Amino acid sequence: MEVKILDGKKISEEIRNHIVNEVKKLKANYGITPGLSVVLVGDDAASHVYVSMKEKACKKVGFHSEVYKLPKETTQQELLNLINKLNNDEKIHGILVQLPLPKGIDEHLINSHIAPTKDVDGFHAVNTGKLFLGKESFIPCTPKGILELIKRTGEDITGKHAVVIGRSNIVGKPVAILLLKENATVTICHSKTKNLDKYVQTADIVVAAVGVPELIKGNMIKKGAIVIDAGTRKVNNKLVGDVEFEEASKKASWITPVPGGVGPMTITMLLENTLKAAKAQCE
Ligand SMILES: Nc1nc2c(c(=O)[nH]1)N[C@@H](CN(C=O)c1ccc(C(=O)N[C@@H](CCC(=O)O)C(=O)O)cc1)CN2
Questions:
Q1: Are residues 258 and 154 in the same domain?
Q2: Known catalytic residue at 121
Q3: Which of 46, 102, 138, 169 could form a disulfide with 122, with the two C-beta atoms 3.0–4.6 Å apart?
Q4: Is residue 128 part of a domain?
Q5: Is there a domain that residue 282 lies in?
Q6: Residue 95, helix vs strand vs coil
Q7: Binding-site residue set
Q8: Does 152 lie in the same domain as 79?
Q9: Mean pLDDT of 48-58
Q10: Residue 263 in contact with ligand 1 by CB distance below 6 A
Q11: Contact 180, 200 (CB under 8 A)
Q12: Both 257 and 149 in a single domain?
């Protein structure tokens, strides 16, 4: 059986083309242009790259986009003041604070200051709680993108054993909840899990989100498994995922590449969430 590649770039393009049409309809019917504000504090190089990608993606689908680049000395109060202003700005339907934030700024306090209706990252406690309860909410972009990729395989998730490696609030925990909602049997592994290979070997779906290059070896993968790699680390100036791609490809039925798998889907899901916020705010 030959492995099939889950091409995040190609799938993103299809979804983004659909968003372009939705934006045109929203403008024509309601005179509304979806607006996203991205706030970046400090000089983390990768964050600057991701924010530029978000800005470019917004412009390409016809959104109004604002980027606030603040120095690393910015105080928590200054950041809260900016969020207050954006919460009350009618042109802005989505607000996002790029993570990680510099030391001394409380990420949870900041995220919980964003109006839940504009929380397109889905990190506000209200949206996290709704996700946990299985209610309609903004779903964090990377987990939402991962679920979309798994669905694109056409495989039925019900009853499958999904092993999520990583327990972050941004990826591991929400993706586990989403898979549970799709009736998968979910196991969450993390840095303190003993005998990780024993869990991965039984997985029909593997979601790796730990940021440890090639932690998941090809010989851990069960034949026919769907393998989703959400890890990205630079090693010798090259992006490397959490999965040993070449070897895992010999066993998997579907696999995501790094780069070009989960990453582009993260930004596409942000566009989807912003469109959803704009639609909800014009109802
Ligand atoms: N507020 C948020 N902060 C962060 C999030 C998030 O969802 N919200 N996620 C990550 C970073 N991230 C988006 O912000 C992100 C990471 C990677 C990619 C991506 O497309 N990667 C490409 C490779 C890009 C490169 O060459 O470096 C790929 O995998 O193909 C997009 C978005 C942490 N912070």
A1: yes
A2: yes
A3: 138
A4: no
A5: no
A6: strand
A7: 166-168, 232
A8: no
A9: 98
A10: yes
A11: no
A12: yes
Tokens 């993390």 locate to 190
Whichever domain contains 96, its CATH number is 3.40.50.10860
98 ligand 1 Cβ < 6 A: yes
Determine the Cα–Cα distance for residues 92 and 12; give it in Å rounded to an integer: 23
For tokens 């299985």, the residue is 134
Domain-located, residue 239: yes
Residues of each annotated binding site for NADP(+): 166-168, 232
SS3 state at 141 = helix
> Stretch 86-104: mean pLDDT, rounded?
97
* 185 membership: H or E segment, kind and range: strand 185-189
Asked whether residue 190 is assigned to any structural domain, the reply reads yes
Count the domains in the chain. Answer: 2
Q: Are residues 156 and 194 in the same domain?
A: yes
Structural domain harbouring 54: 31-115
* Type of residue numbered 61: V
Residue of minimum CA distance from atom 22 in ligand 1 = 263
Please, which pLDDT band fits residue 234 given cuts at 50, 70 and 90?
very high
283, pLDDT greater than 80: no
* Per-residue model confidence (pLDDT) at position 281: 86
Catalytic entry in 119, 121, 204, 242: 121
User: Which of 98, 204, 276, 281 does the annotation list as catalytic?
Assistant: 98
